[in-house]
Each structure stands twice: as C-alpha cells, then as structure tokens.
C-alpha cells in the first residue's frame, strides 16, 4: 500500500487510488523497427532490486498518468513527475543521486 | 485432573456463573473466563484431535499462539470454524464443538494414522500418492480430503455484519502490555496522535501475572495508572479486543477489532477492520514461550509453563493437581511458585541446566519445591491425559532414572519475541546468542517513503525480557518514534521496574539432548500440523537445506497458527541436522495476518447487493418488470431474454429472434460504450487506434472499426461516427467502455501528449435503443419528425433530428442484418422513448429482445463478438477481417506486431462457419480433433468452436470456429468430441449463414 504524490493534483494518493502501468520511459518501436528492437520494446523490462522508474495513473483521482522514481527494495520514493517526458528530470535524478550515489538505470544515471 | 480452585482468578467474577455447551454437553463457567479456562475448570483436558495423526490434544497455551484448542463456535449463520479457545471469551449460551475427529472426540477412527505414523513421515504425500496416476483423482484425493482439513465449512450465509474503519495517526502502538503502554505514554506526551491496539480484553499483557514492581508499586497498579493517564489524553485512542494484524508498505497497518464476539447480543457489527495509516508504528507485541521437545510433549495436560500460571492466576483454574515442571530458564520457577501459592502440588522442577537458576529458583526452593538440576523429561506417559513422566539426565539419551506419577506437565523452552509485525514489511532479524532467539535488527528496519525505518520495536518484542529493561526500552521507543516525525520528547523520569535476578537460560532444542529415535519420533515441534523432531531431521537428511523448503516439505509452521510456537524449535533442529549455525539457516517469512482474521472483516460491508455497484440503464426497471432473465455484462445487467409466462428461456429467445427477423424488435443498447473523441488531431489519433482509416470518414457517416493492442491482438470493435470535422463518436463493446477510454487516455497522455485531442466517456449520458426488423422504418415514420427514408438516411450514416418530439440521434447501423436504426436519446428521456416505441409499435408487432437473440442474429450474419471469437490471442487477420485493416497507413497500434513471424504464420487458425451434419448444436468451446496424439497422449487438435447457437431462422445448429487452414477447406467435415462421449461432425462453411449479400439491412 504505497503512497505516491500525484504531480498533477498534488494529492498524496494511496495505492488504492492508483493503477500501475509498468516501466517508465519505454521508447515506442513501430513499423520499420527491427525484430529485436520491437521484441525488447514489447517484452524486455527492467526488474531491478533498487532504483526503478515506473508509470502510475491516478485512476481513481484526477486520471492523469505520472512517473515515480523509487527503490523497489526499501520502498523509498525519490519523487514523482508528469509522464510527458522521455527522461527523468534533473531534480529527480539529483534526488536519487543524493540517496544512492552511483546509481544506474538503463541509460540514465 | 484440571479444576477450578477457591483462590486466585484476577479476571473472573465468581458471582456471575455462565452456562455453555461443549460437544452438546452443558458446562458451567464464570464471567471473565476464556473458553479454554472454562473447559479446564470442567476437567475437559482433551479438546481436539491433531491434523494428521488424530492424536488427542489438550490446551497448550493461553493466548493467540494456541495450536490445539481449535473449535467450531456458534450455530447456523453464526457458525465459525477454527476459533482458538484461548482467545474466545466465554458468554452465556456459547456453543463450541471440537474438530477433526470422527465419530467422536473420545473415540476417533483416524487415530489409526497414529499407529501407522512411521508410514507417514515428512513428505509422505509427495512420496506415496504419486503412482499410479489414475488413482489420484478417484482414490487418493477423496481420501486425503476426507481425512485432512481442520474445521467444517459454514453451510449458511454469515448472519453477522462487518465494517471498515479508516484511521490516520502519527503513531500506532501495537500491543497494550507494559511496554506498549509506556511507549504510548512517552509518545503521547510529545503531543503526537497515538492509537494503541491490544488484542486481548485486558491491558498490561503478561506483567500482572509475572509480577515485579514499578517505582515501588506492584506492576498491576502501574498498568491501571498508565491506562487512566492515557485515557485522559485527547490525542490518545485506546482499543482492546483489537489486534494489529499486519504491517504493510509506507506505514499502512491493519487492525482487527472484535466487537461482539464476547457478547453476541450487542448491537452493531461483529468485527471492524481498521485500515490505518501511521507515520510510525511501535511493535510492543511481547514474546511467546517455546515448548520443549521431549517425547509425548503433546499429550493433554502438557502445557506451556507461562500458560499454566495464567490459568491459575487469571482464572483460578488448576490445570492439574500434581505437576511436574521442565525448564531451561528461570521463568518457569514463576509457575512453580504460583502453583505452590495456589495450593497445587509441584512434584519436581526439572531444570536442564546443571547449575540451575537464580533468585526465583532460590525462592521456590525455600517454599519447599523439589528442584532437580541437569534433569529432563524422557517421555510423558498417558494417552488422553497425562499420567506420569519418566525423568532422565538431560545430557543423555533418555534412560529413565525415575518415574513420577503426575496429571500435568509444565514446560518452558525460553521466550521468542513476537517479531511478526516487525517482519511483515521487510524488517530483518538478528540472532541473540544469550537468549537463543531472533530479535529485530535495529539497523535493518522496514523503511518508508522517506527511506527511514518506520517500525520501532519495544520491550519483549525487542528481546528485552526483564521488567526494568522492558520499561526503559519502551520509553525510548516512544520518544524515538515521536522525535522521528518532528515531535519534541519531554525529559522525564523513566519508570523503574524491579524484579528478581535471573540466571542465563540454556538453549535446549531436544530433551534429553541425545534422545533416541523412538523418543524423537514422539517429540512434537508443530502441534497443529503434527511435525516431529524426526520429520525435520529426515527432511535435512533428504537434502532440504533451505528453511523455506523444509517448511513446505514437512509442513512445519504452515498451519493456522503459522508456527508461532514451532518455528524456532524447528529451525534449531534443522540447523543442528545441517551442522550450521541457527542464524545461517534463518527463519521462514512472516506474513500477515498475525492470527487469522475473519473473511467477513475482510469483506466489510461489501457483500450482497453492495458487493459491487450495479449499473442500470434507464430502461432497467421495465426489463425487470417484464420477465428479464438477467445476464451480468461488466457491471451492467442486460436482459438475456424476456421470458413470458409458460415459456422456457430457450422458447423466449427463439420467439424474439423470429419476431425481429419477421416483424420488429427493440434492443436496449444503452450499455454500449460511447466515447467522444474531439480535437484538431482526433482523426490522426483514431487512425493510430483503429486498424482502419478513420480520418477519411465524412461527417454524417459511420464506419465499423477494429482496435488492437500494441501486441497486435484484437481488443475491441465498434462503429465510429464522425460528428463534425473535429469530433468522432466511438462505440465500444459493453464491457469495453471504461477499458478503451483508459486505453485512449494512456496513449494520449504518455505517447502523443502534444496531439490536440481529448476524450470524454458519455456512455451513461445517452440511452440507446435499436429498432430492428422489416417494420422498423414504418414505426419511425409513424412517430413522425425527421426523414428516415433510405435516401435521407442511408445505411452506415447517422442524423440528428426529432422523432415524436424527442431529440434523437439516429444511426443506420445493424448488428442483426435487418433494417435497423439505433436511436440515442438523452438518458433522462430513455424510458419515455422506450415506452413510446412499445406503444406505437404494437400494430407492427414490436417485441423487445435480449442479448441471446442479439448473439444468434449476429452469428447468423457471421459478425464476430469480442470475447467469443477473440480471447486475447486472436488478431484481425485470423477472423478474415483484412478489409478492415488499412494498407495505406504507415502505422497503427498493433501493425508492427502483426508483422512478426508468428502473426504471419499461414498455420494460424482462421475463422470459418461450422454446420453440423445432423443439424444439432455443437458444444461451446469444443475442439476439432486431428490425426495422432501429443506427448500427453491427448488427441491432436486442428480447431475449436468460438460461438455456437441454435438458429431458429435456419432451423439448425450454427457455429463459428477457428480452424487450421479453415477458409481453404470449405466443405470438409471435422470431428468434435463432446464431453459425454458423443462426437459431433460438422462441415466447414462460410461464416455468413444468412442474407449473404446484405440485402435485408440495406433497404
């Protein structure tokens, strides 16, 4: 029963208000992409013990999708931010670095 | 024998006798008794049979850890199985039944299992019931099911009510013993909001029984004073009969309050589930005494030493008249002293330690109690109750030195902190060598959203077993928790506890230390699941090195008590067998709830009609009043058919189809999803969502569209109407409206967030009625208003207008193959319009039809149904829907996936029609068999039925199915075995059975 702050409406939302959406920052591969790229886009997911970026929707609230950066092992939440971005914003990355120096996640660090 | 004694009994009221029944026998107890203490007061030492061997079992404990005394309580709608007698408060009229025996508790045929126990070792089920395979279903499983299991399943609907309670607090204190109370006080004095949950009806925990003083007063006075102080504080909420059931992520906790279990006549809900958010949680959950593993430690009359003194001090009940006590620590001397003070004969204290104990031993000795150091119990004698013990040297194999006749045995193997709630959300443990137990590791607490530990253990739950240490630890815990969330702890005097000096305990995992195999075979670790020392040793010998594997193989700790007593002893035996240190073997995972909570509490008020909200169309009541045979579709109810008096449901469906095809039918289509997609980029957006081209659709026109997931699989279909340049109305399936709405939002918000589109779900804003059949136009023309002629409103177009004064939007779309108008009116006008159609349509033979008639008519036309022809693995190409897949578009969701090799495989099963040779109806879901068998010896298959009906129009069974190379095999006959041995033969035909050229709908 996580609590995540919705970056749109500012509410500290209980998990029952939220719907999970899997990994964040997936790059869509459409027609013309290689089999491997498309396969990875559909199926290859990070499953880290530690820093992770996830998509959540404030489904029983304002309805907006947002991203959360958190630690899957300690449940620490480093921050949430709107989904309209292709990479974690700097302040989120800084917040993670402050707590987990040297972290890496896909191409981000 | 066990009996009530004249003295003691701090919790009972001797002036208030109570009558209750046990296995139909009327017995007497006192106000304040638990069911367990009352049974003991009536010399009912045998209270149940064990799970596997059906061994006679008595009461072992006095609290939540009790593994044996499980009862079926109450009758009828109030019956509940598996209730612990030790935590059941007695009330007048209580009815209890013991479990797991047949035909009776005293005489049980299952006991033969015990005689055969050497044939039932660990992993018995895995080893024995493997072969022959054919025996499993008919022989093994029914026998095991009959013999296994605990209580009976209630037969009637639960007559009680339950509720949820949402609570937000700064600090939650779980446990109302001296530690919990002191921690709560220290925290509350900072101004923090504090909630204290105590699972029993009484404050103070074990302390009033165990004794000692606080600041010079008896500990009981300290408890009373502290409770009074806390009660007077506005920022403190105190709840008894409320168990902390579980600790979860980010400070979420569940409390389980039993409101009327002790007094069923009280009004209101029986249980209340507290759903708590706390900034910090203090676990002051105490400790549980361990058993000693000696032979016969499960015979009725053998009891935990602490429980025995609870029964004497709290309830004035002597669990025996002549008692032998075995121990490895000082605490059991408290029992010896309490028993002696109550006038019960204490024959021996057998202290496994050669040097014995400290102050308490000296005190017992001074009272004249015989103490034998370095001694142990070799075996307990007796069957349904203890008759004596064989005494031996602890450091030996169990050769008897002496036989002592007695009627009860008290044992103490030391104390294990209750670390369950600390561990639920990831708190780690460390092994305390001195006290031989696991306790919370302060450096590895469960962490919250801020990355800080949010659970603080206090007192015995933190491994502090001495009164003075308990109080100072609890005081520190309360202050620490408050300080961590920004409150300022006051500097104040910490209450000083005082008690006797205790000598160190000595770990004893097997008694005597080198007990023979015969003895180990009768030394029980897990009473509820009948796991013995020898079973765990066998598991280790067979290579089970992980404690989690051993648990599953032997079932140690898997019963409803979750191994509260068994776990540490079991893993110590495992560690010893593996020659590994205990901390290296580790514990199994602690999972919530701490003790079982009722299903009623979990459901709360969500039952019966409010289990889930029901969605009703504006015409719902009319359907209900006119014979609707309801079918659940998502949260909606739709009429399957309207059954008239004297008709079967099948008759009604046949009548409805026939009437619609020949005259005029009405369908309540309001449940179909209606999504408005609007904006400058709406067309571009729909081109990505649908496989067809939607951007080229002209305002005023409709187009049938297919939607796929990014995996390529078909997820929904429906008719899209273009309202104006920027606006589309997308119809979805009934069950799909919310899902497809969410699907659209997801892509708009997360992928194409710069596109100018918004989506609104207006499903419930409109009532929609399909007017279907050859007479449809006649009816609408009679109503008067807009022009509904073929020229003014051709097939696959829509118009806004008025009919009989109603504002309507009319779509010329058809899911039946007939002349059909789907008419949307504002929801509030839906019923009036429906009534009008029925009234004015009477002369044209109007008749409403339900979802089954709808299904049959669409199947006759070969139209697919999402969920019938699709199951999440089907792509549009499988269904011959190539015409609905745009080849002009560069991209749409699912396009890339549909190019993957498996999706373009020519061997994918394809949609065809199926016609049985004899006109019968194919069974739904039946498979078409092919030559040969697979590796499991099953027939190979080459297709399956996706929809099957009796068509009244054609007077025969029709079906659709997916068949290997189906469209290329027209006319071929396939065999479909039924479930009853009958095989159906069906010919592959076109899926369009009726009006192949669409002449009827396009008029």
TrEMBL record, chain A:
Any Gene Ontology biological process: tetrahydrofolate metabolic process
Name the UniProt record assigns to this protein: Sarcosine oxidase subunit delta
GO MF terms, alphabetically ordered: sarcosine oxidase activity
InterPro entries listed in its UniProt record: SoxD, SoxD_sf
Annotated organism of origin: Jhaorihella thermophila
Family matches, as Gene3D superfamilies: Folate-binding superfamily (3.30.2270.10)
UniProtKB/TrEMBL annotation, chain B:
Domain SoxA A3: 521-604
A biological process term (GO) from this entry: tetrahydrofolate metabolic process
Residues covered by the Aminomethyltransferase C-terminal domain: 910-995
Single GO term (MF): sarcosine oxidase activity
Keyword Oxidoreductase: yes
NCBIfam families: soxA
Protein name, entry field: Sarcosine oxidase subunit alpha
Species of origin: Jhaorihella thermophila
């Amino acid at each position: 029963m996580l609590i995540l702050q919705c970056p749109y409406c500012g509410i500290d939302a209980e998990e029952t208000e939220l719907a999970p959406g899997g990994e964040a920052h997936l790059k869509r591969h459409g027609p013309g992409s290689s089999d491997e790229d498309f396969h990875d886009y559909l199926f290859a997911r990070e499953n880290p013990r530690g820093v992770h970026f996830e998509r959540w929707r404030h489904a029983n609230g304002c309805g907006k999708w947002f991203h959360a950066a958190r630690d899957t092992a300690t449940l620490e939440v480093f921050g949430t931010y709107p989904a309209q971005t292709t990479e974690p914003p700097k302040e989120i990355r800084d917040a993670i670095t402050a707590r987990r120096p040297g972290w890496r996640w896909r191409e981000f660090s | 024998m066990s009996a009530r004694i004249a003295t003691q009994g701090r919790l009972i009221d001797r002036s208030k006798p109570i009558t209750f029944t046990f296995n139909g026998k009327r017995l007497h107890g006192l106000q304040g008794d638990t069911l367990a203490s009352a049974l003991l007061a009536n010399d009912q030492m045998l209270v149940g049979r064990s799970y596997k061997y059906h061994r006679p079992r008595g009461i072992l404990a006095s609290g939540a850890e009790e593994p044996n005394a499980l009862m079926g309580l109450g009758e009828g709608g109030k019956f509940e199985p598996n209730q612990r007698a030790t935590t059941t408060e007695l009330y007048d009229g209580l009815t209890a039944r013991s479990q797991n025996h047949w035909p009776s508790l005293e005489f049980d045929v299952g006991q033969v299992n015990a005689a055969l126990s050497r044939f039932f070792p660990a992993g018995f089920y895995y080893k024995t019931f493997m072969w022959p395979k054919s025996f499993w279903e008919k022989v093994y499983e029914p026998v095991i099911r009959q013999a296994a299991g605990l209580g009976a399943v209630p037969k009637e609907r639960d007559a009680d009510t339950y509720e949820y309670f949402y609570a937000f607090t700064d600090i939650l204190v779980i446990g109302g013993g001296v530690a919990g109370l002191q921690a709560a006080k220290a925290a509350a004095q900072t101004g923090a909001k504090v909630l204290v949950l105590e699972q029993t009806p009484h404050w103070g925990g074990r302390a009033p029984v165990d004794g000692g003083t606080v600041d010079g007063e008896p500990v009981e006075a300290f408890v009373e004073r502290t409770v009074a102080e806390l009660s007077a504080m506005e920022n403190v909420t105190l709840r008894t009969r409320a168990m902390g059931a579980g600790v979860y992520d980010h400070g979420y906790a569940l409390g389980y309050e039993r409101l009327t279990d002790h007094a069923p006549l009280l009004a209101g809900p029986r249980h209340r589930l507290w759903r708590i958010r706390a900034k910090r949680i203090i676990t002051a959950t105490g400790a549980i005494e361990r058993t000693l593993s000696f032979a016969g430690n499960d015979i009725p009359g053998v009891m935990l030493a602490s429980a025995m003194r609870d029964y004497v001090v709290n309830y004035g009940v002597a669990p025996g008249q002549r008692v032998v006590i075995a121990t490895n620590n000082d605490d059991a001397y408290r029992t010896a002293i309490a028993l002696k003070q109550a006038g019960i004969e204490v024959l021996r204290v057998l202290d496994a330690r050669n040097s014995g104990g400290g102050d308490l031993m000296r005190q017992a000795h001074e009272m004249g109690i015989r103490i034998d150091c370095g001694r142990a119990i070799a075996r307990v004698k007796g069957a349904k109750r203890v008759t004596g013990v064989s005494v031996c040297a602890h450091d030996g194999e169990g050769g008897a030195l002496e036989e002592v006749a007695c009627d009860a045995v008290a044992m103490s193997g030391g104390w294990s902190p209750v670390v369950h709630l600390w561990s639920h959300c990831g708190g780690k443990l460390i092994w305390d060598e001195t006290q031989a137990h696991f306790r919370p590791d302060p450096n590895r607490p469960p962490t919250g959203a801020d990355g800080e530990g949010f659970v603080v253990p206090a007192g015995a739950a933190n491994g502090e077993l001495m009164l003075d240490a308990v109080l100072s630890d609890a005081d520190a815990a309360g202050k620490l928790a408050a300080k961590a969330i920004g409150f300022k702890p006051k500097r104040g005097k910490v209450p000083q506890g005082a008690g006797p000096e205790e000598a160190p305990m000595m770990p004893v995992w097997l008694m005597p230390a080198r007990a023979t195999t015969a003895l180990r075979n009768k030394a029980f670790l897990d009473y509820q699941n009948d796991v013995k020392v020898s079973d765990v040793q066998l598991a280790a010998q067979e290579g089970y090195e992980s404690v989690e594997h051993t648990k599953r193989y032997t079932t140690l700790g898997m019963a409803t008590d979750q191994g509260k007593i068994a776990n540490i002893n079991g893993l110590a035996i495992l560690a010893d067998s593996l020659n590994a240190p205990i901390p290296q073997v580790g514990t199994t995972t602690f999972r919530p709830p701490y003790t079982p909570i009722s299903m009623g509490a979990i459901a709360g008020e969500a039952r019966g009609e409010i289990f889930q909200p029901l969605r009703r169309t504006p015409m719902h009541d009319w359907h209900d009043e006119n014979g609707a045979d309801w079918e659940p579709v998502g949260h909606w109810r739709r009429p399957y058919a309207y059954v008239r008096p004297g008709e079967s449901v099948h008759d009604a469906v046949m009548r409805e189809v026939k009437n619609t095809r020949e005259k005029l039918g009405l369908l309540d289509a309001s449940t179909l999803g209606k999504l408005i997609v609007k904006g400058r980029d709406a067309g571009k957006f729909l081109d990505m969502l649908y496989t067809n081209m939607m951007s080229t659709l002209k305002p005023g026109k409709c187009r049938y569209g297919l939607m796929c997931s990014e995996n390529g699989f078909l997820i929904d279909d429906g008719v899209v109407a273009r309202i104006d340049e920027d606006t589309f109305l997308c119809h979805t399936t009934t069950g799909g409206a919310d899902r497809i709405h969410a699907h659209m939002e997801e892509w708009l918000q997360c992928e194409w967030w710069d596109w100018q589109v918004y989506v609104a779900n207006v499903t419930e804003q409109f009532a929609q009625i399909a007017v279907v059949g050859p007479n449809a136009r006649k009816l609408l023309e009679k109503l008067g208003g807009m022009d509904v002629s073929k020229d003014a409103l051709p097939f696959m177009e829509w118009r806004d207008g008025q009919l009989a004064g109603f504002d309507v939007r009319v779509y010329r779309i058809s899911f039946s193959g007939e002349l059909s108008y789907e008419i949307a009116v504002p929801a509030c006008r839906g019923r009036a319009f429906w009534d009008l159609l029925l009234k004015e349509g009477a002369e044209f033979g109007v008749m409403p039809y339900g979802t089954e008639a709808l299904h049959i008519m669409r199947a006759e036309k070969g139209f697919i149904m999402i969920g019938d022809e699709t199951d999440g693995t089907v792509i549009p190409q499988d269904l011959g829907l190539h015409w609905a897949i745009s080849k002009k578009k560069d991209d749409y969701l699912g396009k890339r996936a549909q190019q993957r090799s498996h999706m373009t495989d020519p061997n994918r099963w394809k949609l065809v029609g199926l016609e049985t040779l004899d006109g019968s109806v194919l069974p739904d879901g039946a498979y078409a068999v092919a030559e040969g068998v697979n590796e499991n010896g099953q027939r190979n298959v080459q297709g399956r039925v996706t929809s099957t009906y009796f068509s009244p129009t054609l007077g025969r069974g029709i079906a659709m199915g997916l068949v290997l190379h189906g469209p290329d095999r027209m006319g071929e006959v396939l065999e479909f075995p039924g479930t009853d041995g009958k095989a159906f033969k069906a010919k592959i035909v076109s899926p369009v059975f009726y009006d192949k050229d669409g002449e009827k709908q396009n008029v």
